[in-house]
Specification:
The complex is a heterodimer. Chain A is of the alpha+beta class. Chain A has helices spanning 12-18, 35-40, 76-80, 83-88, 90-98, 102-107, 110-115, 121-127, 139-142, 166-171, 189-192, 272-278, 285-295, 306-325, and strands at 5-8, 26-29, 48-51, 61-64, 67-71, 175-180, 183-188, 211-218, 224-230, 241-250, 253-262, 269-270. Chain A is built from 14 helices and twelve strands. Helices cover 30% and strands 24% of the residues of chain B. Chain B has 22 helices and 29 strands. Chain B has a seven-stranded mixed β-sheet with strand order 3-5-1-14-11-12-13, with helices on both faces. In chain B, strands 7, 8, 9, 16, 17 and 18 form a six-stranded mixed β-sheet that branches. Chain B is globular. Classes of the chains: A alpha+beta, B alpha+beta.
Amino acid sequence: MRPFEFASAKTKAQAVGLLGTSFDQAEVLAGGSDLLALMKDDVVHPKRLVSIQGITELREVKPSEAGLTIGALRTLDELAHDQEIARRYPALAWALGEAASPQIRNVATLGGNLCQRPRCWYFRGGHGLLAKGPSGESLVIKGDNRYHAILGNQGPAYFVSPSTIAPVLTAYGAKVRIHGPKGDREVTVEKFYRAPQSDTEREHDLQPNEIVTEVVIPKASGTQAAAYEVRQKEAFDWPFATACAVLKMSGGRVESARIVLGHVAPVPWVSEMAARSIRGKSVTAETAAAAGQAAVESAIALSRNKFKIQLARVAVARALLEASKATAAA
Amino acid sequence: MANYEWPAADKRSLIGKRISRVDGPQKTTGRAKYTYDQNPRGMLYGKIVRSPHAHAKIVSIDTSAAEKHPGVKAVELMTEPGKEIFWAGDELVALAAVDETSAEDAARLVKIQYEVLPHFVSDAEPPADVPVGGPLSENEIRSMVTTLQVPVGQVVSRVQSDGITFTPKEEDLEQAKKNGMPDALIDAIRKAKVVPPGKGGTYKKVAAQTQGDPDKGFSESEVVSEGIYGSPVITHCCLESHGAMSEWPDPEHLFVHISTQNVSGIPGQMSEPLKMPATNIRVHQDHVGGGFGSKFSVDSWGIVSAKLSKKAGGKPVKIMLDRRAELEVAGARPSAYARVKVGAKKDGTLVAWEHSGWGTGGVGGGGAPPLPYIVNVPNQKKQHTAISNNIGSARAWRAPNHPQAAVITMGALEDLAAKLNMDPVDFFLKNIELTSPRAKIYAEEIRKGDELIGWKKNWRPRGESPGPVKRGLGMSIHTWGGRGHNSECDFTINPDGSVSVKLGSQDLGTGTRTCIQMVAADSLGVPFDAVKVELGDTQYPPSGGSGGSTTIGGVSSSTRRGAIDALNQLFAKVAPALNAKPEELEAVNGTVRVASDTKRSLPWKQACAKLGAMPVTARGVNKSGMTPDLTNSGVGGVQMADVSVDTETGIVKVNKMVAVQDCGLVIDLKTAESQVYGALIMGIAYSLYEEKIMDEQTGRMLNANMEFYRLTGIGDFGELVVHMMTGPGYDERGVIGLAEPPTVSPGAAISNAVANAIGVRVPFLPLTPDRVLAALEGKEARRAAL
């Protein structure tokens, strides 16, 4: 283990003060389920860990007329059993309960889930976020890319965004509240993620001296929503593709839709095409399949992941069908 | 004359009952201590520097910085400049430090220069024009003689002309001779030129072997089915990784804790490399967290833990592999694939078989599976090409070569049955005589399986399941030997009535302790709890390694013999008090009594008190050729799988599996069933998830972790039904091992069930969505082309 400093912050301001100007200098430690594994595997080696577990205000869940504000330190397990979330955002409650394993849900935090690093096996094998070989070529393109991106994969990033929660939050239009040296700022979950263009960038919009403090979900009363994960195992298995559909229905037809795919692109993939395809229609096997097809219209298979296009298509169709049968949210 | 025979059914007090394993509470509460849990005061942590390259030559090694790192107490080279490395993860340097992090940090300071050489990690189908020939590995010679049945003369001339890839050891040759290897071949091996590993070329092809007249057979076949089948390299993935902790109580004596399947065999393996007598080496192990065939050897890390400890003044040094090393180097099951053609008459009578197979077990090539498996088709033509590549070497994996053989054979036969429009159950029963000598057992087991899974009621022809989620049924049959190994125990009856059995065996988690205790208590007519079993130490009499399903037959036989001999010694002391002759006595239901006049009896404790001050100890021995023979060989099993396949996602779910298994006389019905449940769960893992994924670019395993090397979870295996064939016709055969056979069929049965569900064969395991969807797409394309 490479030596590192451990610092424990009691306030947001302290945390920001303890962080550095690059990720090599310091990383934020919350539940640690991903960061410690990355350190053990020598993929990241920060000189300092800044624990934010002592910042108690980041553990709160605050319902309001406008929606729900969730502290970044709430564990996935706590949130999966949260009655407010179940009532207001049933698709989110479901996705939280499906994430990882019970052991991990007990320690992993919402903020940590959003900030977890990609699972690309070249990245995890020490070849950098963009997985380059000795002469700068992409190891993903020539290598085994069965789990890699089919959308937004024009490079240089080919990994898939790993969070199964982020696509659901994106579909609900949630925002990430961030605290930094200049105070608080908010960014939509959608814009929080980005495909890095160089190995020095990260896959999200978080500066080295910023922390995620809260997730703010706008009111979703009356929406019908569902998420679907195409996964081989019942638990503790990364999905091949996920989709979340949040629908506003009117007279049996879709008035508006937010459809977001996961595990298909370097970011949670908002599909305007799929939403447009289903808008104004009632959800049937045929219209859902057409929306699924629209979602993957621009997909491009790498050498080994063509099957994921089919799985993404099916995930969208099934999320839509389930959403159309769901009860309207409180 | 002592009566060692197993008691008749009506005389058994414990044997055949369901007894919970004695170490269950210890394990479930975390009190059971594994080698991994050994952390004595002052222990040093060992770490190994491993090659990042799959093929390289070592140019130089500089350990000076590592040696100076704070906390480092000893450094040992495990290779030297000039040596060639043939797989990523191979051991280069080991060091020991006061804590794990210091050891890791120091390991990073070791500077090694490599001359990187081209590597090859694929096991794709070899080119068609590969010539027959190439130097042979031990595995290849063994499989040529046994599974491929190449005439000995041909093997001899191949060894003479092309050489061998290993340096033969005299003791191994002696053992081979004992196992029936012909003298001419042993002589040829002794004199053969040794081609260094990796220098024998990538492909080694065995000349085609024939049985009967395959050409005529195919011309007489009315229906011929062709297909491609196989399973990839998988790893053992022991949950307790490999490793050992060594310490020197004094400069002449070594004490080793090791995670092993082979307690008694370890000192002999350490003696030569450490240049010390085996009798000065004590090995101890209480529990092992999985071996599956990969833990017979002390391994280079076991040896180096002892060397590091010596350098560190005898302090304990523990080396346990991390997960990456465990998956990269500590065990792989060889891959096996084949193109198969099989022909039958319209009524289903099998006539002809032909296959061309390939596979890899790493740089040593790897053995050929026995094809066709069990079903001895009259006319055969077969050929195998071994691929030598740069992945960690193969080790025995439960029922070596059998699961691969079953996937290929049972898949090809199911495809043929589908083409014949026959229910596979009818097809197997039609050809049941070809499974001789166990035809009757298989027929009974197939009928039992049918009953348990509702085959006849639920089976539909291929692809006739309605809706997008298709259901299907598949079956497979398997066999294994399982004769008990050599085993000795010390069986002691104490004057206070307590009983102990001590032996250098090991309990792999299968219930060995429990079974020994049952046999001992049953043999003495005392309660189960009256017996204490101690194993896992070389201070006890030697007992064989737990491999090849040999343990239960070995330890139950030695225990039974020891029990009867000790009991006879007791009878000699007790007889005068009962006014009888020793041979008139029996020990039943907690008493020693006169068999013909059971009122003349003494409670067990009082009887034992007649021993006076000294306990009696008998050495129970099991070895081959003893009369009566308490163990036996050769079992049959049938498995059936009920699966659902989501044809839109390619995801396969196992709804139910039925395993019908014989293993002669069952000692503990509960642990026997557990053994089969475990085999099914492990079988589902290799059917649906497991695969050692190698990267051609980096030469590394991509999924050397437990996120992407996936095993069956609790929610993934559906309903499991196990039925043990017991009673008349089975029990009187004696005790036979059970670990291997039930792991053989799951892959084949599940693959067949998927083919039945979706109407097309998914050629290779694991049955992941990419493979299932590709097979469905191929079917659509063929339909469109018609």
